[in-house]
Design a protein that fits this description.
- By secondary structure, the chain is mainly alpha-helical.
- It folds into two domains: 137 residues, Ankyrin repeat-containing domain (Serine Threonine Protein Phosphatase 5, Tetratricopeptide repeat); 85 residues, Serine Threonine Protein Phosphatase 5, Tetratricopeptide repeat, CATH 1.25.40.10.
- The protein contains 18 helices and no strands.
- Helix 5 runs parallel beside helix 7, helix 11 crosses helix 12 and helix 16 runs antiparallel to helix 17.
- The protein is globular and about 75 Å long.
- It starts with a helix and ends in an 8-residue tail after the last helix.
- Pfam families: Ank (PF00023), Ank_2 (PF12796), TPR_BSK1_C (PF25575).
- InterPro entries: Ankyrin_rpt, Ankyrin_rpt-contain_sf, Cul2-RING_E3_ligase_SR, TPR-like_helical_dom_sf, TPR_BSK1_C.
- This is Serine/threonine-protein kinase BSK1-like TPR repeats domain-containing protein.
């Protein structure tokens, strides 16, 4: 980075992943974030739909969040109807929530579904987050007992769920807890299908950061689709992040161990990390479950050649 900058590289240059600051924040690279901010990179630049601050929160990097806020990042700059504080609440990052509040984040601004950060952390049973947000959040009229215990009990009660359901789907007539679970499941499925579709659209545009956002939303809505983990792993691989590509690939293998592509994603990730031996091992597993997969055969041969430094004939 120092060499490129010394040769005239533009700090605010745009790429598929945004500016260099967007990319560094998305991967939690605190040294890179500091270097760019020291050279006056814009901490509030919106690239596509993202800000560096939102990227660093999604990466769960407290250090990057802190650096960006100190450099003047706006803790209330929202996108897609979600504020940085709401994003941190969804991620369950209590330390980041504290950091945002100290920087002036407004705890009373709701997300696109009308839920405040306090309600979000409460619904996720994040008591530490509730304790941080409770003293600074204005009283919510729908919660009768305005206390820590009262908030948690209400959000997990049938009445609390009814209120949330009616807020998310106003036309729904409440019919008991069973209906809540049914409609909530339908709402999740609707979100999952939309997010997966948007992710595929973004991937076709080669906007891998946007694709990862939608694939992550799809995963939050349905944790059991190996395809989405495979797609997100591919996005991380395209951005040369082997560690995160591997994490998603391993989840994909666990969900669908007999799927050749799942093992292919894993070996690609190992190759990115420079571990050719593990890459060859993953390719081998993939060929056992899908011996006719031409993509695996070619990649396996290339990995073996790289590992042993000698050509391998196709018959072998």
């Amino acid at each position: 980075m120092q060499l490129l900058i010394s040769k005239g590289a533009v700090i605010e240059a745009e790429s598929d992943g945004g500016t260099p600051l967007h990319c560094a924040a998305a991967l939690g690279r605190k040294e890179a974030v500091k270097m760019l901010l020291d050279r006056e990179a814009n901490p509030n630049k919106v690239s596509g739909i993202y800000t560096p601050l939102m990227n660093s929160i999604s990466a769960r990097s407290f250090e990057c969040v802190n650096l960006l806020l100190k450099a003047g990042a706006d803790p209330n700059l929202s996108w897609k109807g979600q504020t940085p504080l709401c994003n941190a609440s969804v991620q369950g990052e209590t330390d980041i929530i504290k950091c945002l509040l100290n920087a002036g984040a407004n705890p009373n601004v709701a997300d696109i579904d009308g839920l405040t950060p306090l309600e979000i952390v409460g619904m996720h049973s994040n008591l530490a987050g509730v304790m941080v947000l409770f003293p600074v959040t204005s009283r919510i009229p729908t919660i009768p007992n305005w206390s820590l215990d009262g908030i948690m009990k209400h959000l997990h009660s049938e009445e609390g769920r009814r209120q949330i359901l009616c807020m998310l789907i106003p036309e729904t007539k409440w019919n008991g807890l069973k209906m809540f679970e049914t409609v909530w499941g339908l709402k999740k499925m609707e979100t999952y299908l939309l997010a997966k579709s948007r992710g595929e659209e973004a991937f076709r545009r080669k906007d891998y950061m946007d694709a990862m956002y939608w694939y992550s939303l799809a995963i939050d809505s349905s944790l059991y689709d190996a395809t989405v983990f495979s797609n997100r792993s591919l996005c991380w691989a395209r951005l040369n992040d082997g560690s995160r590509a591997l994490s998603d690939a391993e989840a994909c293998v666990v969900l669908k161990p007999d799927w050749g592509k799942a093992h292919y994603r894993e070996c690609v990730a190992w190759k990115l990390l420079g571990n050719l031996r593990m890459s060859v091992k993953a390719f081998s597993k993939g060929l056992k479950v899908d011996p006719e997969n031409k993509e695996l055969k070619v990649a396996f041969r290339e990995a073996v050649e790289a590992e042993f430094g000698m050509p391998v004939f196709e018959e072998i």
